[in-house]
Amino acid sequence: MRLPADMSVWLTAAVGLAVLAYAYIRTFSPYFFDDCVSILRSLTLGYRLIKYKTCKPFYSILDCFLDAVRRHPSKVFIHFEGRAYSYGEVDRQSNKVARALQVEARLREGDSVALFLPNEPSFVWTWLGLAKLGCPAALLNFNIRSKSLLHCFSCCGAKVLVASPELLDAVEEVLPTLREQGIRVFLLSGSCSLEGVTPLADKIAEASDKPLSPELRAKVHIRSTALYIYTSGTTGLPKAAVVTHERVWAASFVQAACGTTAADIFYINLPLYHSAGFLIGMAGGIERGLTLVLKRKFSASQFWDDCRKHNVTVMQYIGETLRYLCNTPKKENEKNHKVRIAIGNGVRSDVWTEFLNRFGNIKVRELYAATEGNIGFINYTSKIGAVGRINFVHRFFFPYTLIKFDIEKEEPIRNSEGLCIEADIGETGLLVGKITHRSPFVGYAGNKQQTEKKRLYDVLKKGDQYFNTGDLLCFDHDNFVYFQDRVGDTFRWKGENVATSEVADILTASHCISEANVYGVKVEGHEGRIGMAAITLTEGEVFDSADVYKQVVSYLPAYARPRFLRIQPSMEMTGTFKMKKVKLVEEGFSPALIEDPLYFLDPEQKTYVPLKEEIYSAIASGKIKL
């Protein structure tokens, strides 16, 4: 059928106009379509969150898992070390764990339970079992020991500890204190000779795998505590961030916001005790109904073989992950994989570029977020280096701003009216998120002082409240967000936050150290900042390198151990008696620039050795691995 002449002209004009509009948008608004897709996804996910907030009975991520079990019980939920666990199998195992703990630990709805477990399937079904009982779980970092372990355990109010057999030595170290406090300790093994530790494996094996009644968790609602996840801060000891069910849902949506689907296979090689591995990875996988590949710990040499073996389509990373992958020897089959999306944070622009050049056109979705925070960003474009992008929908639902910040005084700059001053476009400022009913800040368990320190008042108008992220960011003229640095007493190394005062406490426990000023310094070619400490010696003492080494190795995880020490005659203080760090950070650890004695933690010699020029050069050239 032929079109009338005038209609044909109009149709041709419309097509031409559409082509011109598309070309104009691609040229002058290259991220227009990315913005539209992101806004549409955000609105859809926002609607779902509102629905979950209001529906009765409350619908949790556990209920989402149970729905997935009903839809596809035989679908693989977890691949782990050559074994596949289906949704149905994990569900049944979690029922058995729940029933065993219900009887042996006498758990009731609302009781907090601490999990001291490595990355393995038992972590997942133990948490699910606790969720079925309505019990919040405290996710303990399996690297911590002694004082830190006891602190993390006590601040969440838990009366029960569930631990892995491989962590028994760490449990034994604090067992006398736990027993004094009436804490019940359970081990996921068949036997244990330690008095005060109850083996649980046999009890789990004997328990029924039948479903548990939802009435056991009938009082759980959207604002109930679901988890305690630990984050380092200025207190010197980890803080237990209170993660509500609302927060679990919001974090689980990150995968959906990045474009994953139920057909994807998601690779988790980050620790499940962190929000990235647990909330974005595991909970996000449940929300999508996909298959997870779980790894005990990251291995650069095995990474791509794992991806090929399991047909992985989505991977997680931290900046160090991608750098390690880029440092592996080049192979011919590097682009022979099915990974299409990488979700994570902390990757440098040069590593990002090299990663894409070597391993193919993978959509890197760089994030900015904090476990306890009320504001986050996703770079849903392919813009290298940005941690996010500003759009009006995101800012409407989660109000935030950048304010001018005095790095030396470590406080916001205020005007004559006592209000904060917004940073200009292109200017580095402190990111703060407005505390509202839609974007709350819950804070830290058992630590009102630290919770209050994260609140900032009278920011843009009198009486308002904002969450202080403690991070310096920058917004550019194209609406991209860039991470600049951290402020305060925390630095990041090997993907872990390190609290400087905790490290200082360990150092000053050595008989020869009087004071310790701990900070992070940049190392060429590495993400984050590595630990360094300026120390003063106790009067009449000489530096005892062996004793200091013993202290840090015994009481600090590897990533928190200061690799460099600088012995000073005295500490330089601010007017409010805080140790000055800015100059020390800038001076770094070069023996050519610093007259003070410098020492380097040498793991091969198991002591601190004088930092000579040749050691410094070997570090700079990469011959010495940090």
Automatic annotation (TrEMBL):
SUPFAM superfamilies, per database record: Acetyl-CoA synthetase-like (SSF56801)
Any one GO MF annotation of this record: long-chain fatty acid-CoA ligase activity
Domain AMP-dependent synthetase/ligase: 67-389
Residue ranges of domain AMP-binding enzyme C-terminal in the record: 502-578
Top EC category: ligase
Coiled coil: none
Transport listed as a keyword: yes
Catalytic activity: tetracosanoate + ATP + CoA = tetracosanoyl-CoA + AMP + diphosphate; a long-chain fatty acid + ATP + CoA = a long-chain fatty acyl-CoA + AMP + diphosphate; a very long-chain fatty acid + ATP + CoA = a very long-chain fatty acyl-CoA + AMP + diphosphate
Gene Ontology CC: one annotated term: plasma membrane
Highest taxon of source: Eukaryota
EC number: 6.2.1.3
Keywords: Cell membrane, Fatty acid metabolism, Ligase, Lipid metabolism, Lipid transport, Membrane, Nucleotide-binding, Transmembrane, Transmembrane helix, Transport
Membrane topology: Multi-pass membrane protein
Localization, UniProt: Cell membrane
GO biological process, one term: long-chain fatty acid import into cell
Keyword Ligase among UniProt keywords: yes
Family in the record: Belongs to the ATP-dependent AMP-binding enzyme family.
Stored PANTHER family: LONG-CHAIN FATTY ACID TRANSPORT PROTEIN, LONG-CHAIN FATTY ACID TRANSPORT PROTEIN 2
NCBIfam families per record: PRK08279.1
Record-given protein name: long-chain-fatty-acid--CoA ligase
Lineage, uppermost ranks: Eukaryota, Metazoa, Chordata, Craniata, Vertebrata
